[in-house]
Design brief:
12 helices; 4-stranded mixed beta sheet; alpha/beta; 6-stranded mixed beta sheet; about 425 residues; 22 strands
């Protein structure tokens, strides 16, 4: 039996108010004991004074690569970036070429993840064939082959009759259904949030209602079919209120948002910096406040990276020509700690919940997301005393499309235990 004893650190679970000094005994990747003082002469001791240990972070949405020939490299580098950001599990999106809509592709992701990855990778499979929104993927085969999510990442299932069939199948196979909320007929051609700022800059806007109209439809369908649904990325005040009211009625709906939507505003685009060009777009101050309040009251369940690398100089063009996308695996927690805990005074335990317990619950990972005896020893080590400046030299990512370059953060990640094995990027 392989035993590890972690001493000198404080622990923080989403069920706790403050970090508490405790030792953790791990055997064969499973938490055996959490006590004030543990001694075991057979265990390898790892001293982590001054650190805070919390459940391993789980990212529900990371776009690791664009094409099949990039998968091996993307998993190798992408999981290192995830490790640097404190993640022990990442959900790999299916929007590659070819898409993850068959058993062979799902199996390939699993094989490469075990061989080349340094954290757990959960493959998301396409809900519809080729992500075209025309016909169902072979959902049963995809789930049996190891798909942990069904999701046409970044694309809305516009045909409501098809969405109904999707929901009925996902209920049958008990697999989480993620949906993208965007009415393409309203957002097509838009480059940023439709607002006073877009008018001043002369850029076509994407209105909030383009998101909210699909949020409303998907909630109604979830209520009608009694089917759980996860709204993968919401960004507007109206969406938050629709979801809040649905939860009060008992509709089985969950949702996520990103660190950058909780921090940045459409006004930040005034210099036409393409690192701020993302989809869904950065919204206004009222939307950001509503998202933060949604975190406080439980309306917003998770915080995702929506990691989308853009390599080379592809972003170094005019704003209208640049692709959408921002990387976030390395910065997501640190941005949230700076913005939500230090500035907005949210409890750190609440933030931990949005990064670990809640994503684990959404995915149905029964033995992950908490620091408890019998749970998998996926742990994140926080250093909340270290200031660290993000530079191109300190980043692991080969892509540098982030507006946070040069930003000094008040926290750092000091590694992770992945199934009981200590790893540092």
């Amino acid at each position: 039996m392989n035993k590890i004893l972690i001493k000198g650190a404080s622990i923080l679970d989403s069920s706790m108010k403050e970090p508490v000094s405790k030792d953790i005994l791990i055997a064969d990747g499973i938490i055996q004991e959490i006590q004030s003082s543990i001694e075991d002469p057979q265990a390898e001791k790892i001293n982590l004074p001054g650190r805070v240990i919390c459940p391993g972070f789980i990212d529900l949405q990371a776009h690791l690569c664009e094409a099949l020939q990039e998968i091996e490299t993307a998993i190798c580098w992408g999981t290192r970036e995830a490790l640097r950001g404190g993640y022990t599990t990442v959900c790999a999106m299916p929007d590659i070429n070819p898409p993850l809509d068959n058993e062979g592709m799902i199996n390939l992701i699993q094989i490469l993840s075990k061989a080349k990855g340094c954290v757990n990778v959960i493959p998301a499979a396409c809900t519809t064939k080729g992500m075209k929104g025309e016909s169902l993927s072979e959902i049963g085969n995809l789930v049996r082959s190891g798909a942990g999510i069904l999701y046409d990442a970044g694309k809305t299932i516009s045909n409501t009759s098809l969405l109904r069939r999707v929901m009925e199948y996902t209920k049958m196979f008990s697999v989480p259904l993620f949906v993208h909320c965007e009415d393409d007929s309203l957002s097509c051609g838009g480059l940023m949030n439709e607002s006073v700022t877009s008018a001043v800059l002369g850029l076509p806007g994407i209105p909030a209602v383009a998101e909210e109209i699909v949020v409303a439809r998907d909630i109604l369908m979830a209520e009608y079919l009694q089917c759980p649904v996860h709204l993968a990325l919401i960004t507007t005040k109206g969406s938050v209120e629709l979801i809040r009211q649905a939860k009060k009625k008992g509709v089985r709906v969950t949702c996520g948002t990103t660190a950058h939507h909780l921090d940045l505003l459409d006004e930040d685009i005034r210099d036409f910096d393409t690192n701020y060009k993302i989809n869904p777009p950065l919204r206004g101050a009222g939307d950001r406040c509503a998202l933060i309040e949604g975190l406080r009251d439980g309306t917003v369940d998770s915080i995702i990276s929506d990691h989308t690398p853009c390599y080379g100089n592809i972003k170094n063009v005019e704003f209208a020509e640049a692709p959408f996308g921002i990387i976030g695996l390395e910065t997501c927690f640190r941005v949230c700690y700076e913005n939500l805990v230090i500035r907005e005074k949210l409890p750190l335990s609440l933030l931990i919940d949005k990064f670990s317990a809640s994503p684990a619950r959404i995915l149905g990972l029964g033995k992950k997301g908490h620091l408890k005896k019998g749970f998998v020893a996926d742990l994140t080590i926080l250093d909340l005393t270290k200031k660290e400046t993000l530079t191109e030299e300190t980043m692991i990512s080969r892509s540098k499309n982030t507006p946070y370059l040069g930003k000094t953060f008040s926290s750092a990640i000091d590694g992770c235990f992945v199934e009981g094995i200590l790893k540092r990027a």
